[in-house]
Endoglucanase (Streptomyces fradiae ATCC 10745 = DSM 40063), 865 residues
Amino acid sequence: MGTAVMGALIAGLVAAPSGAAEPPDARAAEGPEQIVNGDFSAGTAPWWWTANSPAAVTDGELCADIPAGTSDPWDAIIGQDGVDLLAGEGYELSFTAHASVPVAIRTSVQMAVEPYTSEHLSTDRITTEPQTFTHTFTAKADNDAAQLGFQAGGHDRAYTLCLDDVSLTGGTEAPPHQPDTGSPVRVNQVGYLTEGPKGGTFVTEATQPLPWTLNAPDGSPAATGTTKVFGQDPTSRQHVHTFDFSRVTRTGEGYTVTIAGKTSEPFAIGDDLYARLRTDALAYFYHNRSGIEIDAGLVGEKYARPAGHLGKAPNQGDGDVPCQPGVCDYRLDVRGGWYDAGDHGKYVVNGGISVAQVMATYERTLTAGNADGAPLGDGRLRVPERGNGTPDILDEAAWQLDFLMKMQVPAGKTLAGMVHHKIHDAEWTGLPLLPHQDPMKRELHPPSTAATLNLAATGAQCARLFRPYDAAFADRCLTAATTAWRAALAHPAVYARADDNVGGGAYEDADVTDEFYWAAAELFVTTGQDDYRRHLLDSPLHGDAGKVFPRGGVWWGGTAGLGALSLATVDNGLTDAQLAQVRTMVTTGADRYAEDARTAAYGVPYAPEDNHYVWGSNSGVLNNMVVLGVAHDLTGNTKYRDALLGGLDYLLGRNPLNQSYVTGYGERDSRNQHHRHWAHQLDPSLPNPAPGSVAGGPNADIQDPVAQDKLKGCAPAMCYIDDIGSWATNEITINWNAPLAWVASFVDDLGGSGTTDPDPAACRVGYASDRWNGGFTSRVTVTNTGTEAISPWKLTWAFADDQRVTDHWGSRITQTGREVTAHPASWNGTIPPGGSVAFGFNGTSGGGAADPTAFALNGAPCTGG
């Protein structure tokens, strides 16, 4: 808790009269339980503690380390907020406590904000043996957000305080939680692309269509129409209508929609709406780096922080980490990488899919005709490595890849080449806790086949993408990948345990068929070796779109789709028939997602079985959107684009809760996500999550105490609360932000290209090369096969290896990494119908100098030949 809050607490406690507890004959305290998770069986949520007194659940108790030398009781506090009190009602407070040395603590029930008036204040003598304490009091005022605090400071020596079975009963049953959903007119609160689809949803019991009005930024009517009655939405149990205003293409900010006297949140129409989301979503990874100071010059003062887990007290550090007892006889330096989610753990299977999708965001700029690599290039993102000649997005990926390789079992050891599943604290820590303040022992957990294959896949992907920029790093990645692959083949069924969940998530996975498929795909694309191809073709997943692209989306425990997307988009050695089969898998999966979006009340491409929204449902939405985006890249079919944009609308406000799930985007955005150092809700001196952080979203299983208390009986798409204690619905994590970054990049590219669908038959490219020692000469002919002149023209492609253009004629050529753009010379800027332009260039290459086969003319894919 911040110093400002501590000062206020001091003021409130000093003003409270001594002995504020009611006598034992206070009104009978019969009534509902007001404390959530008082037995700590669900971990630490929603309990909090001051930063100087880190706590964790040990043997079923919450134990906190109270520092020496504090002056006052309120200098160290364990507490819970959100307690309901009713004036005149009696309450009974009870708890069990013991300490490592005999101490006196104070217990307060008070207002959580100024003037911090106390309803109860008592002092108890805690001994080394567990004792149960009981107090009764009568509330003097109504308060639906009071605070229970155990004030444990004011002692000369350090000690450990343990609490259990905390209970506060009395009052009346709190009314069911009613979410504030705002206007019943639901729209994308950020905005719609100029030429893209534009729609919304209206919550109403009306059974007949209703007129709607699109209000221009100046308040005048910009368009009108009538709603379509949808009926009962099974995901929200709401009766809804839908409306569409796609025909409106006039750009501007501050549009609204009004229906039956109700007006939506404001939104924009334009093409440049998502450039900031692209960079913010990627900045999430720098914010959550381990082992490096987060620089205020890159993220701003409120998000800057010292490096975490480098061994500087109170950290025990990640530079020399032992295994759990009995797991191994060595220690590893596993500094670096990304913190997974709200905790300070680093998990290979979650980190693998995350870094793969970050790299895929960049790789798409090399393979998709309308993708723009410039916003991801050197000097464009918030990373400290900017200016080193490598695209910034790859610099960010390298931070995680380096960590993944450090998790590999050393040569000569048992299970050499395998990869440790995870590294995290030996006990659960609570919120708030900045990484550099984490005092817990760090431990390596056993290797697993799933983690090993994650390294095989991401290492192979790394090798081909880093080759033009850092050949040594690319070689290291490929060596680690091939070593991991061989180790996985030798140990194909080493699984993480479901009960290995103390101090960090288990991430158990007893089916690694999908990881084998993903790893084989990436290794084949990178190396072309036939044994990887054979493994792919022999896999039971190959060709099965339903298993590779399930309705709920690709996830860390189902990664085959990542391999299929790479095979479908990155040049490789599959035969034409084999490539067609892979691409059919992609479009079949995308067809299903597009149909789900078309038939959904809120236009979302997510339809899990029985409408059962799961933990991280928003990541399911996003991963389905990635498949839709790739299908659009491959085919140009607008149904895929429209379904993807429908998913974006859902995430940014067109949903049953009228909630933007992305911090900093929309009028009603999530900002209290579960995170240990973005914890403003618990400590006002700490920030809310950084802009571009996506919440996990509705989860019908509501596993955490806050969700169970507030969301009981919720409809699947309504099972969400923007509360830091709700880790089951409101967590943020690297593997949810990774597909958000991919989608934001895709949509920003759409806006930049005007969202018009390319005509793949409008042009044809002829490309031929002569090779000589260390170099090549290439001749290119671009033919206009359409019926209208093309003027001006711009041809783009990407080399598959380390080719570099040295001089050129007949055009102006620029090259960034593997990406090449040819612009017309002063005399050939127009290609008439049936006409052609020709140009050429020389280049150098250290390899085979394979000719490119994918081209784009003015952003539209061209036929190669």
